[in-house]
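At this stage, I put together one protein's amino acid sequence and its backbone structure tokens, which the following lines show:
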Amino acid sequence: MLRKLLKYDFRSSFSIMGIFYLVMAGAFLLGLLFKQLKVQQLLGGMAAVLMIAGISVIFAALAIAVVRFHKNLYGAEGYLMQTLPVGKGSLILSKAITAYALLLVGGAGTILAIAGFLYLIEGESLMELVKLLFGDLFLPVLVYVIVMALVQMAAVIGEIFAAVTLANTRPFIKNNILFAVVFFFAGNMLVSLLEMAGLFFIPLGLRFSEQGAALTFETTLSSLMEAGMGTNGMEAITAVSFGMGSILVDAAVAVGFLFLAKWIMTRKASVK
């Protein structure tokens, strides 16, 4: 049954994403043409369109995920969906997987748009600056940032689903959209504090060097204090332990909030 739910959710959620990719592809190809023809004004215009579409696609992905979750489970389609012979956990899981896939596609679009933009405007100087700051450590640091972002996306999905589900309980359902926004930002602030605490105080991290990354059992805070304020650039990157505590916190938050959404949906939530 989960496969059928995923097929339905993917089909109803991804159609609009192709439009953004078509706009980005068209802007990039026209930008290449204008770059060859040395028409700077039109080149700048196409680069701007590419960047705007690239930034918009990630927000569109998030908006689609939120709207589909709310409408499909608590809005016009809610009565039908919640009478299907399938568990609440499967409904939540299907929506979570679809939302995560949407954010992955949106994030990939944003990254491709930034890369295309830099190529069109000849951003070699920016890349040289990045290499100067990070040197051979650029790739391992980039992998660390990507992993952190991927886990954080899952946490955000959990926060949104829990907030929307809580807002559709009896005390809040009359103003469910307003309360969903309030609950999300309240939860997000709490999670941000937990992330900071995990990042600085959980004794688990990575130290980067030219040989790669090594696991350490020290806190980011202690490594910062040990390194002192005088270090910068490559020296600072190798001197500091990049905390993995926030990644663990986000993973726990993602799972915890999804289970919370399932529990509320099963016992407390209503369809407006």
